Amino acid sequence: MMDLKSQINIEKLPRHIAIIMDGNGRWAKQHGKPRVFGHRNGVTAVRETTEAAAELGVEYLTLYAFSTENWNRPKLEVNALMRLLVETLNKEVETLNKNDIRLQAIGDIRKLPERTYQALQQGIERTKDNSRMTLVLALNYSSKWEIMEASRRLAQQVQAGELSPADINEQVFSNALNTSGMPDPELLIRTSGENRISNFLLWQIAYAELYFSPVFWPDFRKEHFYQAIIDFQHRERRFGKISEQLVQ
Ligand code: FPP
Q: pTM, whole model, 2 decimals?
């Protein structure tokens, strides 16, 4: 097999890659195991992808770990996922520090179970000075919620006389989102063959390239990640212009 990593142009790396990790349940079913077994094995893919992104020099990696809609799953599965998060966060903070990776979160994290919230806050606090890459976990996240919250915040500022409606522009609105300060993802990957966005970063992916992989998340490895980046680099990103207007 051709070495995929060497085919990546490091000069043209996406600064921010976002991933919808999907297919844990189907992967488990394929193996005749309960769904939780899929989530446990999904952690290996999280580790692989994080390492691959950091090694390449990606600045931001955002992983959709739990959506606002996921609360509707069987209680047993939700509880197991929350426990898995605590366990993984506690275990991996040291790895993050060793690799100079900063942890951040987006979503309504205050509504997570107390133990999950605490583990997350601790992870964020203990890695806050790291600077090689930022790993962003989307937890109890939904894009519509985020956009509504931002709107509410801006409306409050207007009401308080701190902001004029005429001054609301793209930059002001972006800064009111959870992702304030982060570059928009240039590449969005979804695994497991589903071709949907599922309420993830709707504002931020306005110009992102979308890459759909048939691989179930627990099987996702560095090679699959490299393939997505190579694919991204072969696309022409026009941002509404025509080919001839693009400077190479
Ligand atoms: C989607 O597969 C996966 C999730 C909802 C959870 C993802 C969480 C992990 C991989 C563990 C998180 C750990 C860290 C530290 C981020 P699915 O259950 O929707 O699969 P299905 O579509 O086949 O049912």
A: 0.95
